[in-house]
Amino acid sequence: MIIVLTGIDGSGKSTAARALVSMVRARGGRALLVSNHAGRRVMSLAAARLGVRLPDRVADGVETLLRVGNVLVSHLRASRFDGLVVMDRHLHCQLALRHAKGLPRGRFLPWLLARLPQPDAIFHLDIDHTEAHRRIIARGTDSESLADLAAFHHGYRELPEYAGFLRIDASAPAGEVAAELNSRLEFAQA
């Protein structure tokens, strides 16, 4: 079984993914966590340190290349794993980012999405962008503006695929979010 977690920065995707995998393993199940990052945090921190801003198309090109590579490796690993595979982010995240930046959807990512094995579920960790911003500030490892988070939030909702996402209230504490994911998985497997 493959599930994907999506959501804006600060929604708790990575935290929920780790907690869910731990829950499954604690009850004797097999679970694998794979991350499909695009290098945004590293690029934005490096650009801020250097006092430059990468043009949106350049940043998208680098992010897309890294994300596609990670997604392909993750699907290869998933094909060889017998158990639950939790994918932290996917190509939908890049498509939402493109929309947020006013960039075209393009043809390649939708084409690739249609050809990859379809996940059994895509869980969208839904959170208000102001709460996500508060979390990002509190963790102190990166920064996102309220405007960028609002645009990213809107970008997800504009995806044609969004209607099929299963939404989880990510404003709850991390343990509750993971428990909700776990509950929905157990129900789906029953």
From TrEMBL:
Pfam families: Thymidylate_kin. Its EC number is 2.7.4.9. InterPro entries: P-loop_NTPase (IPR027417), Thymidylate_kin-like_dom (IPR039430). Keywords: Kinase, Transferase. Residues 7-179 form the Thymidylate kinase-like domain. SUPFAM superfamilies: P-loop containing nucleoside triphosphate hydrolases. It comes from the Bacteria. One of its GO terms (molecular function) is dTMP kinase activity. This is dTMP kinase.
